[in-house]
């Protein structure tokens, strides 16, 4: 099982802060495709991945990164701290 | 030292404590970021973050600064939750034997935590609420380091 977390407008569009999913996706992009196929709200949230960032086990990563051994995936817009 | 908190902080008190902890450093630089009312109608600013990753990311940014400059210490305090206009969002402080190191490291910390630490700002105005968009110049600012 994999924990998926959503932040900021990604969380609002999907309507959940986190969920647990059963997936065999090999990469982040594969996982996004699985999620987009589920429901319109996921399809909308992930429509433009250039507006998104991903963290794997709390480290910033890339969409083509492998999910092997990853327990926590987070999707969010570019960060606006400071 | 890294702190992520909902509570307000006292920048003067923080700076005094930090300065006392780096006795003999010779140069201390600090920066404090405040909630800005850009549109003139801001009622509050909400800051969301990613508990766990936030502390890791700030720790990594601080460690990088400690390695690149000759620093006696570096402090990062960042708030989350609901803030009002003029409230203090965050501060950084750096201490060194050399003024240049302290200034540069403080700028580096600011540039990195703006677009590499998982915080998201949402502005609430009289007309509604919206997420603050990231700026390309914030990403560009990282290139000089």
TrEMBL record, chain A:
This is Molybdopterin converting factor subunit 1. CDD domains: Ubl_MoaD. It comes from the Bacteria. The gene is moaD. Gene3D superfamilies: 3.10.20.30.
TrEMBL record, chain B:
It catalyses: 2 [molybdopterin-synthase sulfur-carrier protein]-C-terminal-Gly-aminoethanethioate + cyclic pyranopterin phosphate + H2O = molybdopterin + 2 [molybdopterin-synthase sulfur-carrier protein]-C-terminal Gly-Gly + 2 H(+). Pfam families: MoaE. Keywords: Molybdenum cofactor biosynthesis. CDD domains: MoaE. It is an enzyme of class 2 (transferase). Its EC number is 2.8.1.12. Pathway: Cofactor biosynthesis; molybdopterin biosynthesis. Converts molybdopterin precursor Z into molybdopterin. This requires the incorporation of two sulfur atoms into precursor Z to generate a dithiolene group. The sulfur is provided by MoaD. Belongs to the MoaE family. Heterotetramer of 2 MoaD subunits and 2 MoaE subunits. Also stable as homodimer. The enzyme changes between these two forms during catalysis. This is Molybdopterin synthase catalytic subunit. The lineage of its organism: Bacteria, Pseudomonadati, Pseudomonadota, Alphaproteobacteria, Rhodobacterales.
């Amino acid at each position: 099982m994999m924990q998926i977390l959503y932040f900021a407008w990604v969380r609002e569009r999907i309507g959940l802060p986190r969920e647990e999913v059963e997936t065999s996706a090999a990469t982040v992009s594969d996982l996004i495709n699985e999620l987009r196929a589920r429901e319109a709200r996921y399809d909308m949230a992930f429509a433009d991945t250039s507006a998104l960032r991903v963290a794997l086990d709390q480290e910033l990563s890339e969409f083509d990164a492998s999910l092997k051994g990853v327990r926590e995936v987070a999707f969010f817009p570019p960060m606006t701290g400071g | 030292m890294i702190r992520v908190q909902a509570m307000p902080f006292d920048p003067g008190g923080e700076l005094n404590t930090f300065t006392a902890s780096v006795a003999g450093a010779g140069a201390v630089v600090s920066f404090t970021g405040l909630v800005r009312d850009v549109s003139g109608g801001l009622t509050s600013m909400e800051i969301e973050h990613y508990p766990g990753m936030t502390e890791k990311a700030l720790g990594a940014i601080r460690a990088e600064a400690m390695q690149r400059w000759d620093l006696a210490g570096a402090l990062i305090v960042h708030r989350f939750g609901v803030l009002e206009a003029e409230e203090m969002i965050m501060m950084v402080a750096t201490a060194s034997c050399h003024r240049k190191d302290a200034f540069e490291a403080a700028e580096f910390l600011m540039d990195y935590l703006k677009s590499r630490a998982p915080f998201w700002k949402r502005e609430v105005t009289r007309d509604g609420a919206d997420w603050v968009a990231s700026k390309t110049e914030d990403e560009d600012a990282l290139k000089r380091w």
